[in-house]
Design a protein that fits this description.
Length: 99
C-alpha cells in the first residue's frame, strides 16, 4: 500500500510554515534540505520537518492539505504544538539514508 503525507516545514526561527503533500516523505524532505527545487520553501529556508500526517490515499492527503492551507497560522501552530511542542526537526537523522 502506497502511503501519502501532508507535512509542515518551518524555518530556523519558526516564523514561516510551509505545508506540502507527497507520496515519498523521505525523498521530499531530502529535496527540501538540499534546496533541489526553487520555490517558497527554499526561498524562506523552510527545511525543518515539524509535523506530518499519514494517509493511505493520495486524494485524502490532497484534500487535507487544502483544508489545512485554508486555515490560519494559529490553527497550524496548534497542530504542530499538540505533537511537537518544541518544534524539533522530526527528520533529524533521516539524511544518512542518502549519504
Amino acid at each position: 500500500m502506497k502511503m501519502s503525507y501532508v507535512y509542515f516545514l518551518a524555518n530556523k526561527n519558526n516564523t514561516v510554515i510551509y505545508v506540502g503533500v507527497t507520496s515519498d516523505l523521505l525523498k521530499r524532505i531530502y529535496q527540501h534540505k538540499t534546496k533541489a527545487y526553487k520555490g517558497f520553501a527554499s526561498k524562506y529556508n523552510c527545511d525543518k520537518l515539524v509535523y506530518y500526517e499519514t494517509f493511505t490515499d493520495i486524494n485524502q492527503a490532497i484534500a487535507r492539505e487544502k483544508q489545512i492551507k485554508a486555515g490560519n497560522r494559529t490553527r497550524k501552530m496548534r497542530l504542530i504544538e499538540a505533537d511537537n511542542p518544541q518544534w524539533n526537526d522530526l527528520s533529524d537523522g533521516w539524511l544518512f539514508y542518502f549519504d
